[in-house]
Amino acid sequence: MIAEAGLAALWIAAALAALQLALAALGVARRDPDVVAGVRPVAVVQALVVALAMALLIALFVRSDMSVLLVAQNSHSAKPLLYKVAGAWGNHEGSMLLWVTVLGLAGGAVAVLERRLEQSTLVATLGAQAAIALGFYAFLLFSSNPFARLVTAPADGNGLNPLLQDPGLAFHPPTLYIGYVGISIAFSFAVGAMVTRDVGPAFARAMRPWVLGAWIFLTLGITAGSYWAYYELGWGGWWFWDPVENASLMPWLAATALLHSVTVLATRDGLRAWTVMLAVVAFSMSMIGTFLVRSGILTSVHAFAVDPARGSFILALLAIYIGGAMALFAARVGTITQGRTFEFVSREGALVANNLLLSVILGVVLIGTLYPIVAAGAFGVQLSVGPPFFNKAAGPVALALVAIMAAGPLMRWRRDDGGAVLNRMLMPFSLTMAVLVALIIFASSAGVLPIAGLALAAGLAAASVAPLWKRNLRRTPLFTYGMVLAHLGIAVSLAGMASESAFTKETLVAARIGQPQRVGPYSVTLEGIVPVLGPNWSALQARLSVRRGAGAPFVLRPQSRFFSSPPTVTSESAIATVADGQLYTVLGQQDGEGRWQLRLWWKPFVTLIWAGGALIALGGMLSLAGRVRRDGRAAMREAYS
Description:
- The protein has 641 residues and is of the alpha+beta class.
- Helix content is 63%, strand content 12%.
- It contains 19 helices and 10 strands.
- The chain starts with a helix and ends with a helix.
């Protein structure tokens, strides 16, 4: 009865979403206080009911109920408990149920927590959120039912894709979905403000924490996904410009631009129309990402659906939501006043330049991702757009973005003097030039973009901490520390990316037992191959003796694993992390002469990529905590005044 209860909960949640939308529409149109008062409770109950549906689906996976089609297709009784739980969203239907669950919970949180918006704007916002949820409920109920039963239950299930049998599955999709749904909240705020013509600083201050929260989770999700792919796939890379990777990067780029824009609107009453447009664009990118991953148009470990009808359904939702929002924006843009103006040389001007460059990078990624799909569908031409295109097209723009990012926090609001800005930039600029000259002299073979990236990373690191100079650090607001850490994280990640690109060493050999190999500063010797057994896999495991110079030897054990359900061979890398980088090892197949394929990489400072991502997210958390604390104090002062 668990599956039937889950399906019933899904239907009830859909009915509540329809009721929420109807009440919101009536409340905005008639301004009836009784109708308006009913919107918040309905949103909260909808959140609880859809969360119940998700919990029941997880219970079905934990119980290994093979009478449920989704469980039989994507689980196995021998799987460890962690992968039974995470496997509930490691498939198309379950991932979409998780998507709408987070959407419902976010709408319920807005209903409970938001007190700063005008009542009519809040009601319109909850109505927009209900409209989004209703479309995805319809998608689940009519196209992707996660609770469908089988007439005859199999003895056991097909199992989960072995590449997804990793703790990353428990962390990566939920964090990304929270980020996507946070963007949907920002979109709903924008729609609500346009409906009631309430685009202004109060609307921006209410929306900013949700944008910031979404941005934090997107950052965490992308960072975790990058490292998961890095160690799991055995290809030695941290970013492949895969269309599904791009599907998560595009909303992050748009959300980053939106975050800066909404800050200007909240604090300086500028960029009103730009903020609303970016909210629509950011949600458009999350919808496009959902379409790419869930439509079956791509073949990927991330892409679960293979039914074109599902893709058409999602495409129709995208057209309705984004087309409707664009039409509303066109109808209301004349009523959105300009707000306060500012000079080009100012912090607002730097933020606008940042947003424009982020938009250019977003356009490059969007075109590079969609063009092969359009060419194949419209003209029957098979094209591949790979890393060379993205690196050459987006790389120089990203470096220009870093340069402006370094200058922006050192500028004053409204208006600044160019000479004074150059004086404040003297130390970051000097450090950039010093690192640049040193790299040209001692590492000229590294390449133009990596050298420029390392030099700019050094300058950005210095500029990031400059806002703390000569300040009372104990009285500095948390959100200032958050800005410093986030920008410093960008510098750290950029240094890691540039170092990995410039200095990585790779060795691909057919090794015999006892034969030493060289990669970077390491000597690696294959000492033997032994069979090992896991919970639901068997493997051949290499024993590699590793020594760096005159240091003590240590052992790495990469594996070639075999999964029987479904039958799959995977490479499990073994990685040694040290202060200045990582030694990355992968075991391949045995050849006819008894030699074993080994792939060895030495990646100097590659860990800075993910350390920087963690710093960026931590900076966002500090900013969010600082903003929430300041708003809470302001609310208390207002209550007691």
